[in-house]
Amino acid sequence: MMLSKKTKYVLLAALVLGLAVIYVPLLVVLLNSVNSDTTFGWPPSGFTLEWWGRAAQNEGVLRALLTSLQAGLAATAIALVLGMMAAFALQRYRFFGKDTVSLLIILPIALPGIVTGIALNNAFRTILGIDLGLFTAIVAHATFCIVVVFNNVVARLRRMGGNLEEASMDLGADGVTTFRLVTFPMLRSALLAGGLLAFALSFDEIIVTTFTLGAGLQTLPIWILDNLFRPNQAPVVNVVAAVLIVVSTVPVYLAQRLSGDTASGGRL
Question: Which top-level group of life is the source organism from (predicted)?
Answer without folding.
Answer: Bacteria
